[in-house]
Automatic annotation (TrEMBL), chain A:
InterPro entries: FMN-bd, Ion_transpt_RnfG/RsxG
Record's signal peptide: 1-23
PANTHER family reported in the protein's UniProt record: ION-TRANSLOCATING OXIDOREDUCTASE COMPLEX SUBUNIT G
GO biological-process terms attached to the record: electron transport chain
Record keywords: Electron transport, Flavoprotein, FMN, Phosphoprotein, Signal, Transport
GO molecular function, one term: FMN binding
Name of the molecule in the record: FMN-binding protein
Domain FMN-binding: 93-174
UniProt xrefs under Pfam families: FMN_bind
GO cellular component, one term: plasma membrane
TrEMBL record, chain B:
Record's protein name: FAD:protein FMN transferase
Gene3D superfamilies recorded: ApbE-like domains
SUPFAM superfamilies: ApbE-like
EC assignment: 2.7.1.180
UniProt key word Transmembrane: no
Classification via PANTHER family: FAD:PROTEIN FMN TRANSFERASE (PTHR30040:SF2), THIAMINE BIOSYNTHESIS LIPOPROTEIN APBE (PTHR30040)
Length: 182, 275
């Protein structure tokens, strides 16, 4: 019958900060790279500067605007041969700010998507540039502690629509800027 | 502990296991992806698409997972006097919560769950045109499948959270925050070896020309708006997930229905009183 145990049922007055903002850090960029392209033995940063024409193309292909001309791309190799690509990107929703990594095969298929970090706010500061850059800085330098107090939340479903659109955009980046690279 | 998070089932899915079990996470995500592939309303390659594109009375071979979910859904339909009904795709399409897919027009659908027949251990037959949507149950089922995959791989404890429908296993206590209808997390409870799911529709229900639009339906398949959260604790996440819909549809009778499944309903206001 009932197997669940009520270890305790307590209603702690949750700290103001956590009632208005939920945050989780899952993986570093390096961890995500190895998960997304497990056969690769090297990941080299691959500087890309998208031309205005390419940005237009990406929007046409994906239906989503590409905001930065310099996406964060890594070339994954195995024994020196191209094994795939990893692109780290972020999406900003109404209440959330998500950094995620997408693995793309040399022929342009999604190998996997891993969320790196998640920031949520009901207070509207998601669009606050200072708040976001603080978060982005953390992600880039990987200095923060991972897997500390990731909150387990039961409640209103969060849509992953923004990420789905983001992945379409990354596939378009691959098509216009990476597909010809060996 | 290690936690990974992927976009699946239209939401974010988190899997937490001890470091030693990290190698099993890929298999658990794959189990969830399989549920998504077979039971997506939107995917024209899904079992749901096959069922709605088949002629009435035609037996359709579906994945074992789909068969199992439909079996649980039909039992819930009987045990709730028809309140839990996966043929609600008709209303969800009519009211704009789901897109009209290929197959029967929502306005031409007449079937209820009573018109779904599980023929044998592989096949399902719909006797009337219908739009089956498993949005009220498949997420919880996917969580159970992921937990089963982790346990089969020898993982002794962990937590799987699919956008707020979550299950934990092993001896450890987990702290779970309950997100209220307004999006805030005011209460946290400690749980072990059970599942919890929550529903609210404050963000998605609205009125237009005095008619209510909401993604939950009660008696007579009428839309129901609930400003506050409803949570259900059960041993399996598929039951917790499905019973949140019953708890919204029929607040009074849902208590004893939940009890018959060994589950408990926690309402936002009830918890405040408990505090």
């Amino acid at each position: 019958m009932t197997r669940f145990t009520w270890a305790s049922l307590f209603a702690v007055p949750v700290l103001a900060a956590s009632s208005s903002a939920i945050a989780a850090d899952y993986l570093t960029v390096a961890q995500a790279q190895h998960i997304l392209v497990p056969q690769a033995d090297a990941f080299a940063a691959f500087p890309v500067t998208l031309s205005p024409a390419q940005l237009t193309q990406i929007r046409q292909i994906s239906g989503v605007p590409q905001r930065t001309a310099q996406p964060r791309v890594w070339r994954a190799t195995s024994g020196g041969r191209l094994a795939g690509w990893v692109i780290v990107d972020e999406v900003i929703g109404k209440h959330e700010y998500i950094t995620y990594a997408t693995g793309i095969s040399p022929d342009g298929h999604v190998l996997g998507v891993e969320i790196l970090s998640y920031r949520e706010s009901k207070g509207g500061q998601v669009r606050d540039v200072r708040w976001r850059s603080l978060f982005r800085g953390k992600t880039v330098r990987d200095k923060f502690k991972l897997n500390q107090d990731i909150p387990n939340i039961s409640g209103a479903t969060l849509s992953s629509r923004n990420i789905t659109d983001g992945v379409k955009r990354l596939l378009a980046i691959h098509a216009v800027a990476l597909a010809q690279v060996r | 502990m290690q936690t990974r998070c992927q976009p699946l089932l239209g939401t974010l899915v988190e899997i937490t296991v001890p470091d030693a079990g990290a190698g099993a996470i890929d298999g658990a995500f794959a189990a969830i992806a399989q549920v998504q592939t077979r039971m997506s309303f939107h995917d024209e390659d899904s079992d749901l698409a096959m069922l709605r594109n088949a002629g009435p009375g035609e037996a359709v071979e579906v994945a074992p997972e789909t068969l199992e979910v439909l079996g649980i859904a039909l039992e819930l339909h009987r045990n709730t006097n028809g309140l839990f009904d996966v043929t609600i795709g008709r209303e969800l399409v009519r009211d704009g919560f789901l897109p009209q897919p290929e197959g029967p027009e929502a306005s031409h659908c007449s079937g209820t769950s009573a018109d779904i027949e599980i023929v044998d251990d592989r096949r399902v037959r719909c006797h009337e045109p219908m739009l089956i949507d498993l949005g009220g149950i498949a997420k919880g089922f996917a969580v159970d499948r992921a937990v089963a995959a982790l346990e089969a791989a020898g993982v002794t404890e962990g937590l799987v959270n699919a956008g707020g429908d979550l299950r934990m296993f092993g001896a450890r206590d987990w702290t779970v925050g309950l997100r209220d209808g307004d999006g805030k997390v005011r209460e946290r409870i400690a749980l072990a070896d059970c599942a919890i799911a929550s529903s609210a529709n404050a963000g998605s229900s609205h009125r237009r020309q005095s008619r209510l639009f909401a993604p939950h339906f009660g008696a007579g398949r009428a839309p129901v708006a609930v400003p506050t959260r409803v949570s259900v604790i059960a041993d399996r996440c598929v039951i917790a997930d499905a019973l949140t819909k019953v708890a919204i549809a029929a607040p009074a009778s849902s208590q004893w229905i939940a009890a018959s499944y060994g589950a408990r309903i926690l309402r936002e206001s009830a918890l405040e009183k408990a505090a």
